[in-house]
Structure formats: structure tokens, C-alpha cells
User: Fold this.
Amino acid sequence: MIRFILLQNRQGKTRLAKYYVPLEESEKHKVEYEVHRLVVNRDAKFTNFVEFRTHKVIYRRYAGLFFSVCVDITDNELAYLECIHLFVEILDHFFSNVCELDFVFNFHKVYLILDEFILAGELQETSKRAIIERMSELEKLE
Amino acid sequence: MNPFSSSTRLRDMIRSIRACKTAAEERGVVRKECADIRASINESDPHDRHRNLAKLMFIHMLGYPTHFGQMECLKLIASPGFPEKRIGYLGLMLLLDERQEVLMLVTNSLKQDLNHTNQYVVGLALCALGNICSAEMARDLAPEVERLIQFRDPNIRKKAALCSTRIVRKVPDLAENFINAASSLLKEKHHGVLITGVQLCYELCTINDEALEFFRKKCTEGLIKTLRDITNSAYQPEYDVAGITDPFLHIRLLKVLRVLGHGDANASDLMTDILAQVATKTESNKNAGNAILYECVETIMAIEDTSSLRVLAINILGRFLSNRDNNIRYVALNMLMKAIAFDDQAVQRHRVTILECVKDPDASIRKRALELVSLLVNENNVKQLTKELIDYLEISDEDFKEDLSAKICSIVEKFSPEKIWYIDQMLKVLSEAGKFVKDDVWHALIVVISNASELHGYTVRALYKAVLTYSEQETLVRVAIWCIGEYGDLLVNNVGMLGIEDPITVTECDAVDVVEDAITRHNSDMTTKAMALVALLKLSSRFPSISERIKDVILKQKGSLLLEMQQRAIEFNSIVERHKNIRSSLVERMPVLDEATFNVRRAGSLPASVSTMAKPSVSIPNGVSAAPLVDLLDLGSDDILAAPSSSSGADFLQDLLSVDLGSSSAQSGATTPAPKAGTDLLLDILSIGTPSPAQNSTSAIDLLSTADMNNNSSTALDTLSSSAPPHIATTASAGGMFDLLDGLSPSPSKEATNGPAYPPIVAYESSSLKIDFTFSKPTGNPQTTNVEATFINLSPNTFTDFVFQAAVPKFLQLHLDPASSNTLPASGGNITQNLRVANSQHGKKSLVMRMRIGYKVNGKDVLEEGQINNFPPGL
Assistant:
């Protein structure tokens, strides 16, 4: 199960934070800080998995953004790598060559996409097309 | 719209915040916006709510408190329009979590929305519920969600399925309600619904045994068929990832099959085909394929045994190990650790590759590989593996050295086939990574060294050579100093040369050089310096020719700023100068330390740290309690120990130590070893009737400097050892340092001299000295005898530093009071001293005593000894 998903830039600013487990605000900030520190110093040649407290964080860097997913120790890391990649592809498709500013100005849309992709810490839909379609349906209702 | 509101658009606000150059500026902008929002909320203006909440969410993401917005979320959720509901639920999920009570207020809205006609609204509600519902909400709304699993729209079905996952996680009791709904989902064609349905199924199986049974019986075959279909399916562009159709579904199905097959042979049987197919047919050049293979291997490991499948799995892992991608290797190492439990042989085949991984630049891979290697070690490959690991230790990074050296040490300890190999390997490790080696490791090494008596010479020579090259490795220096101190004579005289050694010439000066270097070097810590002083003391006895030089070195430390060093220096100096007579017996060779008991004790050792020794505790840290003293005594003495009363011993030993160490309770604390053994020790010492006092070799003092040279405990014990005059009750003497062993038996001193009188005896007579004993017995205690000893100087010279020492056999207990003085004037001057003897064999055996007198005449030391056999019978 996914415990939280973080999108952070190299400076440590969190562009997106979705938690599937309850945490206090201060706890959340601490977690974000720690994960950023863990992830930003790792060399590109190293594995994409780091142990974090009693769980593990699977991260991937896309340009200036780190996509970090914290999962249970027993989960399949390689699968979550694929998951991250699929999410990035969806975002890329939706925003047409997504960049960091898109996350800043359209954060509410990013959350909506995420909510169509992952629910209750589990994968909800694996088809990029299906999610994009759904998003356009929802946009029409606005 | 309120004409007075100056609410900015969301974009503008974001821009203005981003334009801020400093944090203070940003705070200002945020504060203004918050004020506006609060004003707007107070006016309950419905038009701006949407925008306000969006702004609030952004501000929340920046890290500012936004509690005042929570009610807004609720109001928005209750609004009729879809956009409002949407932003409301989004705000809800962002600003609240399940632990907040405010969430309960939403339950009603949620319930209504779950029954809404607009399926998008239903979707919103399910989403919110699935992400943050609490246990009570779950219970309340479970029936709604259950119903929605059968909804016509697949989007709703999949959301409902995942929402149910959360519900059963929060409230496991509700699991039964969802079983039927879940099983219907498994027949779906739509991937999204299928994957969520499988997830729900998995969740139910892990939580509820009934569900597990149900799914196992009814659905295993269906699931297997689904997996087969998806594996064999044609290209589907929608779900394709790197040539594989929907790898996520593959993985999800494999996971649920794992749970179903685990513990059940039938189900496992059914799966073997498809598992074999997946394992062999899946492409492994892309991450997606590897992810599937990984999941497949995990499933194979978890279900009931089919050895052919297992072999297949381990082969896959072996292939992973040689993959260039670090992720794959990491994952393979992880799995191999579990695989060892089943098939050690198969994993051994990959040992070489795993060893390569230990040297990988990536830290996580190195760690995993190292753990795996330590699981692979057995008697056959230990030498080879250790050699490789030690070779790598030399070139590894600093931060890895600690882990690596710890692992090497534990491997060497567990599997070493012979002592000489053990010592060799440990020496290499200490030379390379000494400063990372923990205390108990080198303590164990010393125990082993002391046990390998035929290797003493070899060891000390090897250590000498090593410490010349690697003098910055603290632990190496410590072990070397200890060995040089102990076996210095072997070193210098090339005793016990083994065939493989080259001869080296080490002079006594060289040996002392090494030790002196350890003291004077600025980066030695206190333990090392203290140990060096003790070693010097030992050497001063073993190398009498350069005793002067050693004395100088010790003297230099007299002014040391470290109290411990100063104290030792002064005490040792005193021994070297004035008490040469007892020095040799003080520093005799250590008895062999019992390995077995040491290991047992170490296994159950107290995790006391060095720093806690400040408080006077009765137990020695590191678990080396007083028992080793007992063991040592067992080895050393011929007599069987009789257990004496402990409390007296405790006081006495406490006395002993606190007198010795002056005020430094810091050190003395640690050295009050469990008193019982203390008393055993000294009692035994005293009761060694037959061997002459001088020979109380094995036991006696060195005992007390046990192998546990934990910082202070060793220092204090060493101090004890150095200052305790051997094995004999003594009186207060010059310098007050040997003011110990004040009493063994707690018998209260009785002044009264009632009872039958016994004739006085001349205990000893020589040309210069005469000793008279007069006897009396206290009332009521026939076993105790009070003896008044009178020492008479028969010579024309004055005796100074007069010390009387006595030893009695085991069945007697002796107590000496302080003498009236320790200067004996010439020609007839006398000193009196009271003794108390308790005879446990009163009536059967009579008293007998050996005594030794030391004094100075004209600056020269004189020693006289004798045995007193002429006690009146019946005492």
C-alpha cells in the first residue's frame, strides 16, 4: 500500500503531497524534509529504492522534480517504479509537455488526476487513455 | 459579488507569492490573503467560496496554518453544484485527515452524495471516503459502498472496490459483507475494475480466514485463467507497457495467487503451470518485465514446494544478479536472502557474483550483499570468503568499513577452524579497520590469544610487526600493548617460533619504545594509555635490565592531567621503586581465561556502556562479573573453593577498593565486582597454605585484571591488582597504599580475654628479629582466638617500613589489626599488632601460619619468612 506520494523539486519545495495515512501537520513537514534529504543526495547510478524509517521510498527523478512514493516494506519496488512512470506519462499527456510551473498553477488539477489514478493507496486504473478521458469528462462539468 | 471585496484570482495570488523575494515578504502577502479569505468567509458569500478554498489549499501547501477553512469545505460539499462539491472534497482531503472530529460532520453529506443521481458526484464521494475515512464513517457508510460495487458504471465500480479496501482495513469485522461482491468483480473484463477487484480480494484474504477459504475454493481457477489470458493476450495499445499488456494486472494477480497458494497444496498445484509459463516467457529486458518476474519469484517462494519451480526461481534471481541495472540487482539480493532458507546449495552457486556485489559502488547494494554473504558462510568456504572480504576491506570506503569489519569479525568468530587462522584474520582486520572494531570483539580476541598458549610467541611477534606499521589503529595498539606486556619476554627472546615465521630481532628497548609511543602519542585515548602503563609495569619486571628507563617513562606520567594516569603512574612508580620484592609476583603471567564462560557471559552480557561506570554499581559492565574471578581461581588453585559469606566480603572489598583508589569513586564503582567472588578470591588466596606466599602465581592479582579491559573497569581493576599485595592480609604500611584486606571475617572484635589462658609462644626468632604471640579467647566463641603479636628488634639498626604479612590455610580465617607503628627502633624496640584467627576446624586441627616480614634497614630491603607451627593445641 502506498503511504504517501511526494513531488519535490531540487530545492526541497514540495509541489504535491498526498498522504494515505494520517499524519500531523508538523509530522508531514518533517517527513517531507527527510525524504527530500534522502533523495536529493543520491547518485544517479544508485538504486531507486531507499529505506525510510520502517518503510521504503521509491523515487525517480524527472528533470528537476523528484517523484517519491513511500510504500510498505513488502511491496514490489519495480512495480512502483512503473507506476511512477505511468503517472508521469499521464501528466505529460494532460499538460502537454508538463513542467514544474504546471504543478504550481494547476495544483488542483494535478490532485484530481492523482485521485483518478490512485485511491486508498492502491492503483485504480492502468490505462492512460481511460484516465485522460475521464478528466476531460470532468472538465466539461466545471 | 460584493463590490468591496478585492479578492484576487487564484493565478494572481500565486504569481504575487512567487514574486516575493524574501520569506518575510511572502508571509506578508499570505497574511493579507488569509485576512481577505476570512472576511469573505464571514460574509458567507457563496460566489467566492470556490476560489477561496483553492487559494486556501495553495497556502496550505506552502505550509501555513489554514484551520479556519475547514468549515468552508463542509459548506462547499453541501452545495448542490458539481464544481463546488469537487473543490470541497478536494479541500477536505487536503486539509483534514481521519483523526479530526470535524470529519464526522461530513458523514451525512457523504451519505447523500453516495446516493446521488449524478455518477460523477458519487465518484467524488467514493474518492473522498476511500482516502480519508475514519473507522466510524466506514461502519456507517459500508452498506452504501457495498451496493455501489455492483453499479452500472465501471468507474464507480472500481472506486467502490478500492473504497471497500479501505473500509475492511479500518474495520476488519465488515469483511464478510464484501466477499460476494468481490467475487463478482473477479469476472470483469474491464481492466480497471478487474485490478481493483483483485486488490479487494487480496485484502479480504489477508484479513479474514473465511474469505481466504472461500476464494481459494471458488476463485483460484478463475484467477489462474485470467492470468493466462492476459499473458497470452494480443497487443493492446491501451494497456501496453514495453511490450507487455498491463503489467500491473499481472503483478496484482500474481500477488493474490501467492496468498491463495500459501499453505495449500492443491491451490499451489493448480498454479504451477502458469507460474512456470510466466517465469519463462516474460521478457526481461525492460523494467516492466522484470517487475513481473520479481513478483513471480516471490510467489514461487511463498507457495508450497515444487522444487523444479524453485530452481527456476533461483535461476531467475541469478540472472538478475548479473544485470547491469542496480535496481534489479538490489531486488535479487533481497530475494536471495529469503531463498537461502529453502535451498542453500542453489544460492551458493552464485556466491562469486554476490561477492562482486559487495564491492559495488552503490551503498544499498553493498549492504544487502554483505548480509547475504554472511548468511552463505559455512565451514567450507569461510577461509576463501574471509580472504576476499578482508582484501576488500583495505580498499573500501570509510563508512562501509564499519559494517564490513563487524561482519568479518562475526564470521571469523563463528566459523574459524583453527586458532592461528583466527588470530591472523583478526590481526588483519584490526590493522585495517581497528577503530571500527567494537570492544567485545577485541576482548574476545584477547581471550582466544590467552588460551592459545602455544601461539603466544607468534601472536606477540605478529602484533609487534603490525603495530609498527598501523600505529593509528587504536584497537590494534591496545591488543598489541597488552600482548607485549604479557609476553614481552617471548617477544624479545624469540620464544616459540613457528615454522612459518621469519626471525626478527626485537630488543627490550624496541618493545618499550612501542609502549612508550602509545602513551605519548597525542591521539591515544585514555584506555590505551592506561593499558600502556600497566604493560610497562609488567615489562619492568620482565626486563629488569631496562627497569630504569621504564621507571622514567612512568615517572613522566606522574604529572599527567588525566587523574587515572597520574594515579597509576604514582602507584606503579612506588611499586617499581620500593616494592621490588612483590613486583614479580604482582605481574606474573595471566592465567588462561576460560573461553566457554566468557562466551556465555558475553552472550548474555549486560549492555552497560562505559559511561555508566560513574555510578558505583555492583556488577562490572560487559557482563564480566565476578564469576570470572571464580573461574580463574578454579584454574589456578588446587583447593576447592568454599563459599564464604558474601556481605563481609562485599564490605571488605569495597573498603579495599575505596581505600586504594582514594576518592575516585568513579573508577572504584565499577570495580566492586560482585562481592561473593571477591571474597572467594581473597579467601582462597589466604588459604593457600602450602605454596609459599611468593608463588601465588596463577591466582592472585593478575586475576583481577581480567580480559574485560573495558575502560575504567580495567583501569580500576588493574590498579587494584597493582596495589594489592599478593594474597596475604597485611597491615597499613608506608604510603597507605597497601592498606587493604583489613578484615576477612566480620566477627566483631571482642576485647575481653576470658576463657582459658594459653601459653604465649615465640613464633619466630632470627638474628635480627623476634616475634612473640600471646593468646586469648573471647567469651562464647571457642573458635576465635585473639593473638597479640610483639615484634622485637634484636639488631642495632632501626627498621623502617615494617610490614607483617601472614597466610593461613583454608580452614582458618585471619584478621589483622593495624600495627602500633611501622618503625622498629633498634636494639629491643618493639611493635605490637593484634591478630584474630577463627578456626573452623576447632578441636580437630590446630592453628598453623606462614608469615613474611618486610622492612628496610639502612635503605636496603629485607625480607624474612617463616612458618609458625608451634601454636598451642586447642586454639
Summary: Helices of chain A lie at 25-40, 77-95, 100-105, 107-117, 128-141. The CA atoms of residues 7 and 67 of chain A lie 5 Å apart. The radius of gyration of chain A is 15 Å. Chain A has a mean pLDDT of 90.
